[in-house]
Amino acid sequence: MKKKVIAYLHTHWDREWYREFEVFRLRLLRVFDKVLDLLEKGKIPSFYFDGQTSAIEDYLELNPDKEPLVRKLIKQKKLFIGPCYTLVDEFLTDEKCFRKNLEIGLKYSKDLGCEDFLGYFADTFGHSKNVPVILKEFGIDKAVVWRGCPDEIPSEFMFNGVKTVNLIRGYFMDTFSSDVSIEKKAEFLEDHLDKIAKKSSNALLLPIGADHLGIKSDVAEQIKEVNRHLKNYEIELSSPFKYFELVKDNFKFKHDGELRDNSQTFILPGCYSSRIKLKQHNFQCSYMLDLANKFQIFTQKKYKTKSYDKVIEYAYKLLLQNQAHDGICGCSTDAVHRENILRYEKILQIAHTIIEELKLETGEPTLIVNVSNEEFSGIVRFETTELLPEKDCQLIETKKEVPKDILYSTKRIPITEDFTNVYTYLTEIEFKNPSKLFSKPNNLYRSIFYPLDLSISDTKMENAHIIVEIKDGKIKVIDKQHGGVYGDFLQFADYKDNGDSYNFGPVIGDEGTKSQIISSKILINGKLKCTLGVTFKIGNTKLNTEISLKKGAKNLNFKILWNNKSKNHLLQAQFNLKEPVVKTYSKDMGTLIERSFDPDYDIRKNLPETKGIEAKTNTAPMNGYVWAQGVGFVTRGLCEYEVKKNYLLITILRAIGVISNPQNPARLTPAGPPIEVEEAQQLGENMAEFSIGFCKIEDWQKYYDEIYQYIITK
Q: At 433, is the pLDDT very low, low, confident or very high (cuts 50, 70, 90)?
């Protein structure tokens, strides 16, 4: 008896990748016009539109007359859309954005009449263990995945509580679009289905489609002909939902960890460090949009201000367009990523304007608000046109500009005479009641809460909790609180990279170049904040590193500035811990994930010799935080760390010049087109920011929240 094969027609739609958005959108018009025509004429039974709504929105924006037909086909369960707005990368986006992605996508899908949803992540570069948790929050109990599944996972399994299908052979199946004979197609499919059948139960799932591919008009007839030649299978054109119904009792295998195994499929981990400037923009925009939203909720409640909900949703859509996996991953053309930067700039314009307009609406001359759900006491930054006595404040910057209350006013326009001094201060603030208290000028500049504990020289900086000292060309850090001493704590390491935007390409025998400290001096000497300037040299590059310490703080803050003049290399901040690093905890979709490592593993000794294999790495993604051996690292848009013996390394630059290098030593199979992308070399000025502190793993959230405030506000 032949096994049932449920085949579904689809196209995987990248809004932008090796072509720019508008180029791909014009292609979308041609592809989807044909799909609608085939559906309307009954030549195909259904079409699955890639689990995202952005493509259908992009289509209908230019073809609004097709909306009634789209609604009709959705109602007839011939066209399936959603639940996401875009197919975001699961490790380069945070939990707030992922929830907003589902919220926007589901609302649009339901408005068009769609009722059937599954989490469709057929081409995502690995899968977060927390995505199923968030899917369940939105009432979605089914998912489809591919990349990252280890060999032992069958076709049907429970992924952290969600019924999930593993696309054993992937989503890419363009056989029916090829010009070979029916007999050849049947022969290929028989072999293809045999491989799927080894891990399947009573039915098989067969995607038919590929990236940006249209549907052949005679695909249904071709399948009938192919069925006559298949020995062990019978293909039925239907939808993924029919398949889930057929195998509903087969989800016995359980997997509750993340899916990042690359023994069967490429997970392309170089995307976490490709075009780091994009990741830094993304971090800032995600934070500022969330802050603007929280601030409007606060002011609406306390001051009855107007709602910005629609504006914020518009900005989130811009952000989610950039978070689609070929955008945020940094593996598109230079032109695509220039458009990404423009979107990021628009998002920041919107977020800052919302905050400033709401400040004006409150009528308060100075306003500092705690929008978190936790109490806060510590040092904050604020601006004023008033020159204040430095009894309880520390002046850190003076600039000439138009005050924001004039710049954002609708009652007048700024004139030359409005340009004045704007002062930036640090002061201590205490919020005993989360999300409630705010401070006005008459009670803002409080007395110092804790004893002054800062001291600094050209080679040493200290407060009550931390000592950092430059001695014998090394940085020594002492954690007074826990008694930890870290000698030669920070170096920079530079390696050759013969890879591409998808994978770091190591060079056999390359031991890298290590940095040397050539000078250190005081940059800021204040009672609330001190900064030591340390200049490292690595090759011909100087890394000007600002190490800052605040009064009473339990963390050190780092800002590195350098001019990158070299191509095809990997630059990392290398932290020397006390023991070999065998375990880390890193932030992933709002929670910590534990990962185990072999600290002696060397990728250069384990490069693949045949095509189809991707080298295993000791790198992993992080969403702003990683912890090991009592040391926590909070980063601003740095998304990749690596384990090597006693070292934990954070990538601050990966300079490459091609989307996909056919000679990449870590992956001998192309992952995309070999288009040159000069701007991915990130030549010129670069910056990296992170903070390190000492805490127990159970205290990570409190530590992260405290440092996050610094990372944003400086």
A: low
Distance CA 638, CA 650 (A): 7
DSSP character for 307?
P
Read off the pLDDT of residues 255-298 as tens digits, 9 standing for 90 and up: 999 999 999 999 999 999 999 999 999 999 999 999 999 999 99
> What's the N-to-C CA distance of the chain in angstroms?
68
Q: Element (H or E) spanning 355, and its range?
A: helix 334-362
DSSP state of 423: E
The total of other beta-carbon atoms located within 10 Å of residue 408's CB is 17
| Sign for the pseudo-dihedral over CA of 444, 380, 561, 341 | negative
| Token pair of 422 as six digits | 């704007």
Q: Is the pLDDT of residue 645 over 50?
A: yes
For residue 596, what pLDDT band results from cuts at 50, 70 and 90?
A: very high
Q: How far is C-alpha 650 from the geometric centre of its chain's CA atoms?
A: 16
Strand-pair partners of 585: 594, 627
What does DSSP say about strands 119-121 and 79-80: parallel, antiparallel, or unpaired? unpaired
Cα separation, 128 vs 142, whole angstroms: 15
**Residues 13 and 122 sit within 8 Å (Cβ to Cβ):** no
Query: Cα–Cα distances in Å, from 152 out to 3, 148, 197, 198, 396?
Result: 22, 12, 14, 11, 57
Helices assigned H by DSSP within 363-411: 404-407
Indicate the DSSP class of residue 209: B
Alpha-carbon distance of 264 to 534, in angstroms, equals 45
Does position 443 have pLDDT exceeding 50, yes or no?
no
Pair 312, 318: CB distance under 8 Å: no
pLDDT beyond 90 at 438: no
| Amino acid, res. 474 | K
**How buried is residue 360: exposed, middle or buried, by Cβ count under 10 Å (0-12/13-18/19+)?**
middle
Alpha carbon separation from 522 to 239, 379, 488, 525, 714 (Å, rounded): 66, 20, 20, 7, 17
Distance between CA atoms of 346 and 157, rounded to whole angstroms?
A: 42
Q: What is the dihedral of CA 54, 58, 64, 65, to 10 degrees?
A: -90
Q: CA nearest 88: which of 121, 53, 57, 130?
A: 121
Cα angle for residues 395, 401, 403 (degrees, 5° grid): 85
What SS3 state is found at 707?
A: helix
83-99 pLDDT per residue, tens: 999 999 999 999 999 99
Of the candidate ranges 84-88, 164-168, 436-440, 479-483, the one whose mean pLDDT is the lowest: 436-440
Q: What are phi and psi of 535, to 5 degrees?
A: -100, 120
Cα–Cα dist 424/418, whole Å = 18
Q: Which residue has the tokens 């998808």?
A: 502
Q: Cα torsion for 249, 250, 253, 256, to the nearest 10°?
A: -60
Q: What is the mean pLDDT of residues 93-121?
A: 98
- HEC sequence for 75-106: HCCCEECCCECCCECCCCCCHHHHHHHHHHHH
Among the listed residues 621, 580, 601, the one whose alpha carbon sits nearest the alpha carbon of residue 279: 621
Query: At 379, which amino acid appears?
Result: I
Structure tokens at 542: 């100087």
Look at residue 436 and tell me whether its pLDDT is greater than 60: no
Contact of 201 with 247, CB cutoff 8 Å:
yes
Q: Of 81, 128, 616, 33, which is closest to residue 325 (Cα–Cα)?
A: 128
Nearest to 109 by CA among 166, 68, 146, 71: 71
The answer to whether 584 and 641 have CB atoms below 8 angstroms apart is yes
* Rg of the chain, C-alpha, whole Å: 27
